[in-house]
Amino acid sequence: MARDTTDFRPIEGIDELVEHLAEGNKPRDKWRIGTEHEKFPFYVDGNAPVPYGGERGIRAILEGMQEKLGWDPIIDDGRIIGLVEPTGQGAISLEPGGQFELSGAPLETIHQTCREGNAHLAQVREIAEPMGIRFLGLGGSPKWSLAETPKMPKSRYEIMTRYMPKVGSKGLDMMYRTCTIQVNLDFESEADMRRKMQVSLKLQPLSTALFANSPFTESRPNGLQSWRGDIWRDTDNQRSGLLEFCFSPDFGFADYVEWALDVPMYFVIRDGHYHDMTHITFRQFMAGAARNEVPDGLPTMGDWANHLSTLFPDVRLKRFLEMRGADGGPWRRICALPAFWVGLLYDEAALDAAEALTSSWTYEEVLAMRNAVPEQAISAPFRNTTLREIARDVLVISRMGLKNRGKKNRDGYDETSFLNTLDEVVARGTTSAEELLSAFHTRWGGSIEPVFMEYAY
């Protein structure tokens, strides 16, 4: 999230919080695709991490991008920490360890998404390469320790950094040493949201498996294919993971609100200052727990929107649904991830088929799959088969959905070609992580350094 929300309307009751989510309902002709992708900046000389400050730092990249694009700066305590397109059509933000993120505009087709991603990468390269900086497309930082990883001067991250070790063993790794590709998708009603939430929660481990791309930590194989997927198993289980209540046949907006109310907060913003609120839940905040702690200690709709942005389930509900399972990866994956989910969720016949495929999957089965995927990826077992075989069926459904959409580019090609990189994973039977490990043990001669050349943007 590039910019935290300031909306000073007071909250009168829980119904308003439910209505806030329901306001995301959109007719089908208004459905859009919002793609986010993160990457690790590094100095080509020595493959070292890039700090915030200095003439060749991340601040300088942001300032160069601001001058090139004309986007508005996002300022936190006097420091530029992101950019936003003036009409809200996209933003650039920083993750805690300097991971550089594009939050894309809401677009109609994957063709547009791919052009957007390519344009962004070309723009940031134009600014960064003269500084000797490139960007790495992996799901986990392959070389640098936490101590070596820079820290970005962003107020919410200071609060999170203090809090994470209290609630899990891997939260700091999540913040500072992972990258993802995500897609944000719309729904037309509560019933439509429910279907999409349930299908995408059940298939999120498959997404993690297909995009597994984080097999190294501190210059050595870590024994996993998706280190990032493993990190999310013990980051902060009060606010992340697989949400069992979402599997209920009558799950709705109000259920998500009730869950969110009992998750500890991170912060509230008053007069531009971030106040640490990690000691209370949002329900306690609404009951007046912060009246004597922060100026005007009554909750606002902006506080609620910000709180929703600090929840990290595998699929996050805001006024849209966020698919959060995939590792970061090379540029082809930036287009493949939204194509995978749009094909499944934006065509009625495809959604029917995906729902039928997964309808009998239980929470316990999906949780077991989720736990197996970081190590085994597409080889993970499921019932009497493997995720590789499940992936074959799911990709057929996604391809059907994209074909049915009929969104063609100027050369007459539809969106199905963006799935080719995932078809290759299934056909080979090996993930990107396994290809990286093979290279490490053979042609790289046990060195991590070549990954910075082969997986650089």
UniProtKB/TrEMBL annotation:
Reactions listed under catalytic activity: L-cysteine + L-glutamate + ATP = gamma-L-glutamyl-L-cysteine + ADP + phosphate + H(+)
One MF annotation (Gene Ontology) recorded for this entry: glutamate-cysteine ligase activity
Keywords, ordered alphabetically: ATP-binding, Disulfide bond, Glutathione biosynthesis, Ligase, Nucleotide-binding, Transit peptide
EC number, UniProt record: 6.3.2.2
Membership in a protein family: Belongs to the carboxylate-amine ligase family. Glutamate--cysteine ligase type 2 subfamily. Belongs to the glutamate--cysteine ligase type 2 family. EgtA subfamily.
Subunit structure: Homodimer or monomer when oxidized or reduced, respectively.
The protein's role, per its UniProt record: Catalyzes the synthesis of gamma-glutamylcysteine (gamma-GC).
Protein name, entry field: Glutamate--cysteine ligase
Annotated organism of origin: Mesorhizobium qingshengii
